[in-house]
Specification:
Blueprint lengths: L13 E3 L6 E3 L16 H5 L9
Antiparallel strand pairs: 1-2
Bound molecules: zinc ion.
Protein name: DUF2256 domain-containing protein
InterPro entries: UCP037205
Length: 55
């Protein structure tokens, strides 16, 4: 069995914030929800752009 991946400073995955468009790096608090993280922080989570109105 392969060991669980361990993130180091050099191998941290990054994402682009859906609100501000800036890249941000993995954080320990997101260890369990990284796949669902879309924003770099609480501010951007609250200020997320309004979804496009459905046609
Ligand atoms: Zn952001």
């Amino acid at each position: 069995m392969a060991p669980a991946p361990r993130y180091t400073k050099a191998t941290l995955p990054t994402k682009i914030c859906a609100t501000c468009g800036r890249p941000f790096a993995w954080r320990k608090k997101w260890a369990r929800s990284w796949d669902e993280v879309k924003y770099c922080g609480e501010k951007c989570q609250r200020n997320r752009p309004k979804p496009e109105p459905a046609p």
